[in-house]
Amino acid sequence: MARRIQILLVEDNANDAELVLAALRRAQLDPEWHRVEDEEDYVRSLRPGLDLIISDYEMPSFNGLRALSLLKERGYDIPFILVSGSIGEEIAVEAIKQGATDYLLKDRLGRLGAAATQALEQGRLRRENKRAEEALHKESEFISAVINTAGSLVIVVDREGRIIRFNRACEQLSGYTFDEVKGKNFMDFLLTPEERQGVKGVFEKICAGQFPNIYENLWVTKDGKKRLIAWSNSALLNAKGKVEYAIGTGVDITERRQTEQETQRVSRQMQLLLESAGEGIYGVDTQGLCTFINRAAVEMFGYTREQALGQDMHRLVHHHFEDGYVHPAEECPILRAMKRNEKCRVDMDVFWRADGTFFPVEYSSHPIVENGVTTGAVVTFSDITERRRSEEQIEEQAALLDNAQDAIIVRDLNGAVLFWNKGAERMYGWTRAEAMAHNIGDLLYSDAGKFKDINRVILNRGEWSGEVLHLTKDKRELSVQARSTLVWDKAGRPKSVLAINTDITEKKKIEAQFMRAQRTESIGTLAGGIAHDLNNILTPIMMSIEMLKQNASDPMTNRILDTVEVSCRRGASIVQQVLSFARGLEGERIEVDPKHLVKDVGTIIKDSFPKNIRIERFLPDDSWTVQGDPTQLHQILLNLCVNARDAMPAGGTLTITVENIALDEQYAAMHLEAKAGRYVILSVTDSGTGILPAILDKIFEPFFTTKEVGHGTGLGLSTVSAIVKSHAGFINVYSEQGRGTTFKVYLPAMDIFSDGHRTEKEVISLPRGNGETILLVDDEASILTITGQTLDAFGYRVLTASDGAEAVAVYAQHRDKIAVVLTDMAMPIMDGTATIRALMKINPAVRIIGASGLKTNDSMGKEFNSGIKHFLTKPYTAETLLKTLQAALTEV
Q1: Inter-residue contact 52 to 71 (CB < 8 Å)
Q2: Are 683 and 655 spatial neighbours (Cβ–Cβ below 8 Å)?
Q3: pLDDT band for position 36 (50/70/90)?
Q4: What is the pTM of this model?
Q5: How far is CA 3 from CA 23, 49, 308, 381, in A?
Q6: What is the DSSP secondary structure assignment for residue 625, as one 8-state letter?
Q7: What H or E segment, with its residue span, contains residue 375?
Q8: Is 684 in contact with 547 (CB distance < 8 Å)?
Q9: Which of 255, 364, 637, 785 could form a disulfide with 601 if both were Cys (CB 3.0 to 4.6 A apart)?
Q10: Higher pLDDT residue, 434 or 588?
């Protein structure tokens, strides 16, 4: 009768598959088969229960060696036969090395039946061997556990007398650890010289098969003491019936003659200890029956000693839970631990009194082991009624404190945290457990001296209050209204400090914004008043010039009047600019093509700017249009270009760019003024001196200027800001010292195409990842969080680092997993360029994407030379991020 087998055929040729099946049937095999042609189907078809896999060596999208490798990766032990039309000796040898059972040529399939039968038999033998090995391993583990938990001495040696096993009892008695004696001959150091010959004779008899036997000899301990041991010797035979190991089980009988007296003495002492103990103590046997009980336990339970002895203690005192439900004996921690020969400790439970009431207890249970056998357990317990009442009161008070919005902290006089409420967790980001392991000075203060000064005042005056800067877990600075009070103990000694801290960071920001708004409004009002007066002054002059021109016939006079008129008109233009800032910007809004704006401004600055300034323009043909006042938009570009010119006194490159961009929610989260939608970006970039970080936040304030007196009014950028805001846009500024500055003006695009038809919101198909690991490096926590969330949502795994040094450490640890590194170029401690060099030393082929708010041709050239092939301009959208990442992953 044919043998039924389950086989998987990896073969793209149906005819060849039929030949294989026919060969198997001729060998009295009845195959139940399934054929696959590619890797995906093959992996899906792998499963336990397959008897045999027969694979073609070469297929269009797959090969036999790959199939064999996938089988081994998944841990399946299935015979694998490789079949090929033509296979070289080297490939055949490699297949056998990788685990193939056999290989055949397709023109010699007559041997397939025998090969399959042999492979099936080999598989069966391997499975039987594996089961035998597992059984042997379990048996070995069981024997080890028995040996190590045995109360007697257990030593196992091989035929040469080398120690193989040496249990804990041996270690404790001899003073040697198993690691110290393993592999050593026991006769060399455990025996006295006088006894070695006699013990050697006994050992030789055991090896000759004369066992069991009993023998007594002295053991020499590590500290030179001698102990008399009574041995019961046996042996372990190998498969041939020969002695392979000698096993000695011994008992220390040195003090046998004093045993009874010592036992009585110990018994009296133990009874005294039990009776004098303040804790309740009782013992049970393996059935849970009481074997002894001390006076404290009797008093707490309300039973007499006679009533308790011999009783089932679980049924007597542990029969119900606190809520009145029955406590089954099989769930009793004491009985379960005793059965497992383990200790147990329970911090909260209840025991029941004889009068039917219960009391809260904490207890511990220890097994009683005699000669390696658990004979019972000792239970020690305490009545924790008072402690529980105090804890409940403290928990109630703590719950009230946790409901407070303020951070409430208690610390000792040196700053160690003693209490940390939920408000403190929310404010600072440290959990209670984390905070309790720190000193408050290290936790919240960047300046240790500031904490010491405040602490000194508290100790001297008993209290301190005021505004102070604190650090959060993620190193953000918080403005805090702090109130600290010294707490005294009952003896009148200071013991701790209570601090109540309120986060006023947002309040301070709002106050600062309000003050700036008031200052701007005041300046605007003042400027408007002055401009109004100047207009009143200039108006009659302008009118007088017109009248004078009508009456003047002298050419010289007319030229003078023309000059005066031009100067008046310039003055009027300046006054109009001041009024624009003071009153807000209004004007006719029409559809404007940004390309035309740039071309017009480019013509003006090309003719008027120094020749050592190279002007570059990047204008896409399909740029979107915006709705705005052309004159005001001209003014934006002119003001920014003039500032760029002034930042390059020695010449450089001025770049004007127009871009279309659809801002998503990620971008909006990275820029407070942005909203999701379509925008046109007008970028003005210079390669000049850059802007100091300390003044970057002030550049849009009216009348703020870094230019010399007489060389600037301070209204240029404030006017730009006012115009942009009036057009519902916003501005981003990126600057690096010595590398230049980029101003990006974002203006909402009109929601139409060039043919004038309205468009619905674009649906963009964004590329997804396939589980690749990306290392994000940026010193801005918000960028790490939002970018990480985006990548995670699109199928990537993410590792993060907050600076270059951390990035190098993370990459060194996970270099085999990391597919791409996305790094900011401007970071403290270790900037992007240094980070890239360090990463390339670890792996010259590392894929890197740089990110920066400043993207000029010069800077880009430097970064490309340092190993970057892809660059992101910050802030970037999810679309830009994912497409750039896809490009980096697919590059050759």
Answers
A1: no
A2: yes
A3: very high
A4: 0.35
A5: 14, 15, 69, 67
A6: P
A7: strand 373-383
A8: no
A9: 637
A10: 434
Quick: pLDDT tens for 159-206.
999 999 999 999 999 999 999 999 999 999 999 999 999 999 999 999
* Percentage of residues of the chain with pLDDT beyond 90: 38
Does the pLDDT of residue 74 top 70, yes or no?
A: yes
- Give dist(CA 101, CA 797) in Å, integer: 38
Q: Note the pLDDT tens digit of each residue in 383-407.
A: 998 888 876 776 676 666 677 788 9
Which is it for strands 652-663 and 29-36: parallel, antiparallel or unpaired? Answer: unpaired
Structure tokens at 667: 């971008």
Token pair of 543 as six digits: 């009118």
Instruction: Tell me the two tokens of residue 324.
Output: 């009145």
Cα maximum dimension of the chain: 149
Joined tokens for residue 521: 């409004």
State yes or no: pLDDT of 380 exceeds 50. yes
Distance CA 323, CA 154 (A): 49
Residue 77: strand, helix, or coil? coil
- Contact between 775 and 801 (Cβ < 8 Å): yes
Binned at pLDDT 50, 70 and 90, residue 517 comes out as low
Q: Is the pLDDT of residue 105 over 50?
A: yes
Q: What pLDDT score was predicted for residue 588?
A: 64
Q: Which two tokens stand for residue 473?
A: 């877990």
Strands in 404-462 per DSSP E: 407-411, 417-420
Q: Report residue 438 CA to chain centroid gap.
A: 22
Confidence of residue 468 (pLDDT cuts 50, 70, 90): very high
Residue carrying the six token digits 């008093």: 299
**Residue range 745-757, pLDDT digits in tens:** 999 998 644 444 4
Alpha carbon distance 207, 669 (integer Å) = 81
Residue 313, classed as helix, strand or coil, is: helix
ω into 693 cis (within 30 of 0):
no
Find, among 444, 499, 493, the residue nearest to 469 by Cα. Answer: 444
Q: CA torsion angle for 116, 119, 125, 128 (degrees, to 10)?
A: -80
- Between CA 13 and CA 481 the distance in angstroms is 80
E strand residue ranges, 37-183: 52-56, 58-59, 62-63, 80-84, 102-105, 153-158, 163-166
- Joined tokens for residue 636: 């934006």
Q: Burial letters for 622-643: b for 16+ Cβ neighbours within 10 Å, e otherwise?
A: ebbbbebbbebbebbbbbbbeb
What is the rounded radius of gyration, in angstroms, for the C-alpha atoms of the chain?
44
Structure tokens at 215: 């023998």
DSSP letters, 254-318, are TTGGGHHHHHHHHHHHHHHHHHH-SSEEEEEETTSBEEEE-HHHHHHHT--HHHHTTSBHHHHHS
Can you tell me the distance from the alpha carbon of 858 to that of 616, in angstroms, rounded to the nearest whole number?
13
Pairing mode of beta strands 463-471, 477-488: antiparallel
Confidence at residue 762, expressed as pLDDT on a 0 to 100 scale:
46
Determine the pLDDT at residue 261.
66
Q: How many Å apart are CA 280 and CA 300, to the nearest integer?
A: 7
Amino acid letter, 770: N
Separation of CA 520 from chain center? 45
Q: Which of 315, 316, 320, 314 is nearest to 305 (CA)?
A: 316
Cβ-contact 848, 836 below 8 angstroms: yes
Q: What tokens does 252 get?
A: 């220390």
CA angle 84, 88, 94 (to 5 degrees): 90
Band of the pLDDT at 721, cuts 50, 70, 90? confident
- The residue behind tokens 């928990």 is 395
Alpha carbon distance 477, 559 (integer Å): 64
pLDDT (mean) for 480-504:
90
Between CA 706 and CA 712 the distance in angstroms is 8
DSSP code for 188: G
- Residue 529, judged by CB atoms within 10 A of its CB (0-12, 13-18, 19+), counts as exposed
Provide mean pLDDT across the span 63-71. Answer: 89
DSSP tag of 829? S
